[in-house]
Write a structure and sequence with these properties.
The complex is a heterodimer of chains A (about 375) and B (about 600). With about 375 residues, chain A is mostly helical. Chain A has a single domain, classed as Amino acid/polyamine transporter I (Up-down Bundle), CATH 1.20.1740.10. Helix content of chain A is about 70%, strand content about 0%. Chain A has 13 helices and no strands. The N terminus of chain A is likely disordered. A five-stranded antiparallel beta sheet of chain B has the order 1-2-4-5-3, sandwiched between helices. In chain B, helix 16 packs across helix 18. Among the domains of chain B are: about 120 residues, no CATH class; about 120 residues, no CATH class; about 150 residues, no CATH class. Classes of the chains: A mainly alpha (about 375), B alpha+beta (about 600). Chains A and B meet through helix 6, helix 7, helix 11, helix 12 and helix 13 of A and helix 2, helix 3, helix 10, helix 19 and strand 12 of B. Chain A: It comes from Paenibacillus profundus. Chain A: It is a multi-pass membrane protein. Chain A: Belongs to the amino acid-polyamine-organocation (APC) superfamily. Spore germination protein (SGP) (TC 2.A.3.9) family. Chain A: Its main location: membrane.
């Protein structure tokens, strides 16, 4: 960067971290979560596991912050070679890269499915995916400062339009669909926790963000804010969908939120239907989620010795693309997704645990020496 | 059994995958090559980073430095540079040397005269460039009287020249120099040079003919309410205008002389205890690296010091209005003015400035805010109007209300072109009309507008070349683009409108969204003098939002925009003052 860069350094503030975090999480989940919960629980109490899942995720994300704040100014991919040693860190990050590629592929493929279904019936999916990947690559070069500004522009817009849509859906809202509250006891709620926690994937971005902050300790607060935004969006969308469509109907539709918004019309005003708004906003959210995973991928290549990210950012695109095109149908994508859950567990559970252990060992050996 | 079951499950899941066919491999290759080649192309054309590197590499050798002020000159006379020719003691040799350099100009004027019996002197100036009346009245007249007094005999010529300058020539703009080069260059811009035989010093008498037009209201930035005052082509007059309207001792003017062949004066204005010192330094540095033959207009400076020349957006604001400049300075920005151009440049720019007018602050806050919101809306319509029309007509008839869709397709009946061609025809026609009307004299321009807008529009509809709805959309975008107060921003939006039309024609609403994302990406990456272009919007600072989409009442705007990191954050507003007084009196009563 030029000398003008030090006029306004791109250090992240806690608000920006919260916004990036929320943007990374909000993605496909907005559309699919109500159906996943309805299928898993078979009761209309999905908002309870969403909140519990949110709390669990806050705990895990704070764990990542705790590990990251030991190394101020460094991201996970900067300090992992010193922590694990070069080869072990390459192994661990290699598995994480597989996970990132899977999620990125999943996001763009879901995008392609939805756009194909609701907006462009005749355009090939490859065009939809490749154009989106190109736009993402353009932003990834801008660095974390530009990314944070982008997220800051898009998140308020998203939340505003989403809640506007939820408010409009009051027209077909029926509170009876949400009753009885906890009618079948606590057991279905327990069944719902895992799928709802899964839909918070994306908070792995906290591997990077604390290292970009001036005061990494403030990231704890940011995690709370960021996740609370997501919990609010998820639970309101769940309540709107179940209230509007009922649990039984929700189980049968692939993209319940779109079905809900398409189910009502307001005649007489300029726009009678509001699914174009929802689609626009949702595409932007998928974009930020995909772009942040792309960014994670590019930064994780550091561990493999790629210092300048330009080539790497383009090299991962064909891999993501091929992986995204592999599943035969929407059903295949959604059912194959459960294999990714193991990678998710590895990334947010095993890796931090390993970090803790290694830290402990290092400290012990330093004490003895 | 369990293992077998798992195997079966995995086999079933694998069957959900398909083996990538050749078209997938091809597209995968394309997904790497397309962005990579675009990236290489833009890299080759010059990226932001490269451009910033240019600043860095030139850091060591500034081409010009800020002009020394008179204060510093009085303390420490300017040092002699190597290739500077010096004056000689003999008058004849000096005159010969000058004539050798510029003697073949018909407008060189020599006026020999004498002090007393022996002391020869010569007044040299360029005819017309120098105000002869001034010279006659304040130079020749006192000097002639002096020579008839006869005090001059047997005085050392150098001392005599010094006394001339200090005692006998009643003019304010005098300079004493020993340099021949300096004398000649001063003569060329309208100073008279007084040479005395036996002295190797010359007196430069600043008596330039002033070519001024009357100060009137700038036609490009007319206001309903506000001072009817605009800059003119003289830097001096503009400085006077600014000085006249600011009497803050912290208001600073730094001068530069730029241009290798035609030296032009450039001034940098800022308020010392508000503007961020790093910003001032950065602007000074960039200005001092300008190295061109000539600077005909401040647009040259703009293009030579901007951050990213690949951007469609202006990164310095041009204005003819002194009140706008002063408002910018009080927010912590800096202004640059060039002699010979009525357009001041304000830096750094953020995108909200492009949609603001000074009037927002002069009218009361509710109308001011509403008009500002209206401008944002019109910028949006102007950018996306035709694109949305194309997208909804050609891809998403299902997303618009059914009745509207039916009437829209009814109006398009008989139109032989796809919506994109239809829109392009009309948009290009209206852009041509606009460009044509701009250059023509005013009455003719209006006629062109009438002929173009009314006649062509109606005729095109009747000939079933375009649908009437398209004409409405095009007219709407044209009108909304007139509502954008900054000409440069308007041009940027007009350019981008065509790109987004193509996006909409290929990918519909999805294309428009991709375009929005591209545009936002460009804007979030763009910086103007280190300040992010999207600044007031993000990073979120509640203080800056008070003056972004809305303009809150003046007494609410207590702090200057924090994005500019002003040194003196507090504005003196009514309420702030009252609060301060109340605090002060409270403290007094306690103690």
């Amino acid at each position: 960067m030029g000398p003008a860069a030090n006029l306004n350094p791109d250090d992240l503030s806690p608000t920006q971290v919260a916004v990036i975090l929320a943007n990374a999480i909000l993605g496909t989940g907005i559309l699919t979560l109500p159906r996943l919960l309805a299928v898993a629980m078979d009761t209309p109490d999905g908002w309870v596991p969403i909140m519990i899942g949110g709390l669990i995720v806050i705990a895990f994300a704070s764990w990542l912050v705790k590990i990251g704040s030991r190394y101020p100014g460094q991201t996970f991919f900067d300090y992992s070679p010193t922590l694990f040693g070069v080869w072990l860190s390459r192994l661990i990050v290699g598995v994480m890269i597989v996970y990132f590629v899977c999620i990125a592929a999943y996001e763009v493929r879901v995008l392609a499915e939805v756009v194909d279904m609701f907006l462009l019936e005749q355009t090939p999916k490859s065009v939809i995916i490749i154009t989106m990947m190109c736009v993402s690559a353009y932003l990834v070069f801008g660095g974390i400062g530009a990314i944070s500004r982008m997220c800051g522009l898009l998140l308020p817009l998203t939340v505003l339009v989403l809640f506007f849509c939820f408010a409009l859906s009051m027209k077909s809202f029926d509170a009876n669909n949400l009753r009885p509250v906890l009618g079948e006891g606590v057991y279905p709620v327990l069944k719902g926790i895992w799928p709802s926690a899964m839909n918070f994937l994306g908070f792995e971005i906290m591997y990077i963000l604390p290292g970009r902050m001036k005061h990494p300790k403030k990231a704890y607060r940011a995690v709370w804010y960021g996740i609370i935004i997501v919990v609010a969006v998820y639970s309101f969308s769940y309540i709107a969908v179940i209230g509007g469509l009922s649990t039984e109907a929700t189980k049968t539709v692939t993209w319940p939120l779109i079905s809900l918004i398409r189910s009502f019309e307001y005649t007489g005003i300029l726009f009678e239907r509001f699914d174009s708004f929802l689609m626009a906003i949702w595409i932007m959210q998928i974009y930020t989620a995909f772009m942040l995973f792309h960014y994670l991928l590019v930064s994780s290549l550091k561990v493999f010795g790629v210092r300048r990210p330009y080539g790497g950012a383009f090299a991962v695109l064909p891999v993501i693309y091929i992986l995204a095109m592999l599943p035969r149908s929407t059903f295949a994508i959604l059912s194959l997704f459960r294999y990714v859950e193991y990678l998710f567990l590895f990334t947010i559970g095993v890796v931090p645990a390993l970090c803790m252990v290694m830290n402990w060992i290092r400290r012990r050996s330093q004490h003895e020496a | 059994m369990r293992i077998l079951h798992n195997m079966v499950m995995i086999m079933r899941d694998l069957s959900l995958l398909k083996i990538p066919t050749w078209d997938i491999w091809l597209a995968a290759g394309f997904s790497f090559l397309a962005p990579y080649l675009v990236y290489r192309l833009f890299h080759w054309l010059g990226t932001n980073e490269q451009f910033m590197k240019r600043w860095k590499s030139l850091k060591s050798k500034p081409k010009a430095s800020a002009q020394p002020t008179l204060c510093s000159q009085l303390r420490q006379p300017p040092e002699k540079t190597e290739d500077e020719a010096m004056l000689h003691r003999s008058l004849n040799q000096n005159v010969d040397a000058i004539c050798k350099q510029i003697g073949d100009n018909t407008d060189l004027y020599l006026r020999p005269f004498q002090f007393g019996q022996h002391m020869k002197a010569m007044l040299l100036y360029m005819d017309c460039a120098t105000d002869k009346q001034l010279l006659d009245e304040f130079v020749l007249k006192p000097l002639m009287r002096l020579s008839s007094d006869g005090v001059t005999d047997r005085m050392d010529p150098n001392r005599f020249v010094r006394r001339l300058r200090l005692e006998w020539i009643p003019m304010s703009e005098l300079e004493d120099t020993a340099s021949l080069t300096r004398s000649i260059s001063a003569m060329l811009v309208g100073s008279a040079v007084l040479l005395v035989d036996g002295s190797d010093h010359a007196i430069l008498i600043g008596a330039k003919t002033k070519l001024l037009r009357a100060i009137d209201e700038p036609s490009t930035e007319a206001l309903v309410r506000g001072p009817r005052l605009g800059f003119i082509e003289s830097l001096r007059a503009n400085t006077v205008i600014l000085r006249d309207r600011t009497n803050d001792p912290n208001f600073k003017v730094i001068g530069f002389e730029l241009g290798q062949r035609n030296r032009k004066k450039v001034s940098l204005f800022y308020v010392q205890d508000i503007a961020q010192p790093e910003l001032v330094e950065e602007v000074k540095r960039r200005i001092s690296q300008i190295d061109v033959d000539d600077l005909p207009e401040s647009g040259y400076i703009e293009q030579l010091i901007e951050d990213n020349y690949m951007s469609p957006f202006p990164q310095l604001q041009t204005t003819e209005r002194p009140d706008r400049v002063i408002a910018g300075l009080l927010e912590g920005r800096v202004a640059i003015m060039l002699d010979g151009s009525p357009f001041a440049l304000i830096a750094p720019v953020t995108f909200n400035m492009l949609l603001q007018t000074p009037e927002d602050y002069y009218t009361r806050w509710i109308p001011g805010s509403l008009l500002r919101v209206l401008r944002y809306v019109s910028a949006f319509v102007s950018l996306f109007g035709p694109a949305l029309y194309i997208a909804f007509i050609s891809f998403h008839q299902g997303l618009i209300p059914t009745k509207l869709a039916i009437s829209m397709s009814g109006t398009r009946e008989g139109v032989p072109f796809p919506p994109l061609v239809e829109a392009l025809m009309m948009e290009i026609a209206i852009e041509i009309l606009r460009e044509a009307g701009l250059r023509l004299p005013k009455p003719v321009g209006q006629a062109v507008g009438l002929v173009g807008g009314l006649v062509i529009g109606t005729a095109a509809v009747e000939a079933h070349l375009v649908s009437p709805l398209m004409v409405i959309v095009v007219a709407l975008t044209a009108i909304t683009s007139f509502a954008i107060p900054q000409y440069e921003a308007g041009v940027a939006i007009r350019m981008l409108r065509f790109i987004v039309m193509f996006c909409a024609a290929t990918l519909g609403l999805y294309g428009i969204i991709l375009f929005i994302l591209m545009l936002l990406t460009h804007v979030v990456k763009l910086k103007s003098f280190g300040l992010p272009y999207v600044s007031p919007a993000v990073p979120f600072r509640s203080n800056d939002w008070q003056d972004f989409l809305l303009r809150l009442p003046l007494f609410k705007l207590v702090l200057r925009p924090r994005m500019l990191k002003p040194q003196d954050q507090q504005r003196e507003t009514d309420i702030a003052k009252k609060g301060g007084d109340r605090d002060g009196s409270g403290r007094q009563s306690q103690s």
